[in-house]
Write a structure and sequence with these properties.
By secondary structure, the protein is α/β, with parallel strands linked by helices. The protein is 30% helix and 19% strand.
Length: 217
Amino acid sequence: MSEFVHVHTKQPVLAVGKSPDAARAVVILLHGRGSNARSILGLVPEIEHPDCAFIAPQASGYTWYPYPFIEPIEKNEPHLSSALKIVHEQIERLEESGIPSERILLLGFSQGACLALESAARRGGRLGGVAGLSGGLIGQTLDRSRYAETMDGTPVFFGCSDTDSHIPRNRVEESAGVFQELGATVTMRLYPRMGHTINEDEITMVRSMIAHIAGEH
């Protein structure tokens, strides 16, 4: 077995909003290909909550992995494993500081959505939520053996255009099915001819997820 190469180590992690130890909810935001942590934090004014902390790690070279997400897993290594490690490390740091995973939301757009979904499925267990905006699980095929045993009812939201040129509709549907099998509470919305972007309905859904985590039922 080849030695693990941590491609994304020593990259910045930006934070805005409340400090995590004073927050009722923490959102980890994952940017898309060619973007950066500061750019994905541009969503914060639209989803901001007074009791929420927002954390955004940055990928080395502005991309989490080099090839399309529906290529064979091996083709995107070691970048993918390094990216997954970054996400898992962020969750572990929060848990070690006393923040339960039930108060953490993973949110990603495009390549960041694929990473958020893949991270959650492999990690398993209960999270406050996962929002994959224009994304799906990673790999040429979806191998159930890569994923954890259960998501313990974690709310998972898929939002995507039904004609996205980067994200095949059938992969979104297949990914949603995997999460249902893992015991997640899945909401999937396919928007007619939306394009590769984020719409107001998705923003509203994310706001609702954050409010629920923060204790507003």
